[in-house]
Amino acid sequence: MTATTPQPGLTGDFHTDSTALTRFLGDLAGRSAGEPAHGPLRTAARLARRRFMERHADRLYEELTDGRRAFHRLDDLAGAAADAVPGLVPTKAELEVERCRAQREKLGLEIDHGIFFQALLDSELSGRHLLDAMRRPTERALAALSGFRATGRADFGVVTVERRGDVGEVTVANTAFLNAEDDLLVAALEAAVDLVLLDDSVRVGVMRGGPMTHPRYAGRRVFGAGINLTRLYEGRISLIDFFLTRELGYIHKILRGLSVPDDGRDWWPEPVEKPWVAAVDSFAIGGGAQILLVFDRVICAEGAYLTLPALREGIIPGVANLRLPRTGGNRLSRQMIFADRRIEADSAEGRLLCDEVVPEERMETAVAEAAATLAAPAVLGNRRVLHAHEEPEDELRRYMAAYAIEQSRRLHSPDLVENLERTWISRNR
Q1: What is the pLDDT of residues 55-76, one digit of tens each?
Q2: Distance CA 17, CA 296 (A)
C-alpha cells in the first residue's frame, strides 16, 4: 500500500512541510477520485496528514487562532485549516457534496477531521484552548438572550426553554423521532443550555423530554431515544456537528458551565456554572443515558429504563466509556456498553445511575424539590471541586483526542453500514 506511494519528506519547518503536504495530497487526489473510502491512495493520504499533524499541530493551531487570541468553534477551525493547508481537511464545498451521500456511499472525508482534531486535542497547549473555545456561548444563544430575559421563554423548534422562578427548564421535543438526537437537535440543545447559564435569575437547570406524538407514546413524555439512526443512515449525522460538538458543547457546558476569560479584573473569576437536574420519563436510550452521567441529580419515573446500544449500532457511546465506570463500576459498564444490557431505573443497578424513582404523577414535585436543594449557595463550590478531581479537564481532553479518531473510523466502517442497512430494512418492511 504505502510502499508504492512514497510519503512526503518532512523537514520540521512548518511552511516547507505544508507546501510539500499540499503538493503530495493534490497529486493523490487526482489519482484517487474513483477510489472507495478505504482505498490504498486514500490511506496513504491519511498517513501523510497524520504525520504532518503529529509534527505541526501546535504551530498550525497558533496560525489558525492568531496566536491563540481568537476562539474558534470546531467547524470554523476546520474550515480555516482547509484554507491554510489545502488538502489537510475537506473544504466546506467537499463536505456539502459528501453530506448528500447516504452513509454507505461516503468517501470517508470526515476521517481527515478525526486526524486533525485528534492531534489538536492531544496537545495540552492547543487542546486546552480549543476546549475553552467550545465553552463560549453560541451566537444563537446570545441573539436570543435579551428576549429570554424579558419573556422567560425561548423556542428553538425542537427545544424550548422556560424560566419558572429560579429554575430554567429545557424541554426536548423532537417528537417525530422520540427525541433522538441529530445535528439540528444538538445545536438547539446547546443554545438552550447557554440561555439557562447566561440568565442571572436562573439558579438551577432542568432537562426533560416533552410529550410525544408517536402513536406508541402519544401524550407520554420521553427523555431520549439516542442517536437518530434515520439521519445516520441518510448520511446526515456529522463527526463535527454531532459527535464532537455534542460532547464539547452542551454536555461539557452542563458539566462545567461557560468559560470565563481571566481578564485580571477579579482575583478569582467565577465561572458561569449551574447545577442541573435530569427528569427521565419512559426511557433514556443511548445518548439519553450518556448525558445522565453529567447531571447533578437524576429523577426517573417508575417504569423508566436505560440502555447503551452503541456497540450494536457500531459506534462509541460518547464519553460514557470514561464516565460510566466511575458511576456504575467496571462490570456494569462492560455489560451496558458491550452487551446492551437494559437497566431498569427501579433496580439495584438503576440506583447507581439515578438518584430517585417516583410515580409518574410525582415527577413535577420531585424535580422541583431536587432543584430547590441544588439552589443552595454552597452547591457550586462543592460541584467545582468534585468535578476537578473526579474528571479533570485534561482527562476529558485526552479522551476526546482518542474519541475523535476512533469515532471517525467507526462512522465509515463496513460493519456500521451493514448494521444501518439491517435496521433500515427491518423498520420499513
Answers
A1: 999 999 999 999 999 999 999 9
A2: 47
How is residue 263 written as a grid cell? 481578564
Q: Encode pLDDT of 281-334 as tens digits.
A: 999 999 999 999 999 999 999 999 999 998 889 999 999 999 999 999 999 999
Global pTM value: 0.95
